[in-house]
Amino acid sequence: MTAAELLPLLDGVRSRGQGKWSARCPAHADRSPSLTIAEGDRGLLLKCWAGCTIEEITSRLGVTVADLFFDAPCPDGQKPISKPPKTDRVALAFRLELAALDRRLRAERVLTAIRGLDGATLTDEMRERLMAVVASTYRGLERADLFEGIADTLRWRAFHERMKAHAA
Question: What domain range is 158 assigned to?
Answer without folding.
Answer: 89-167
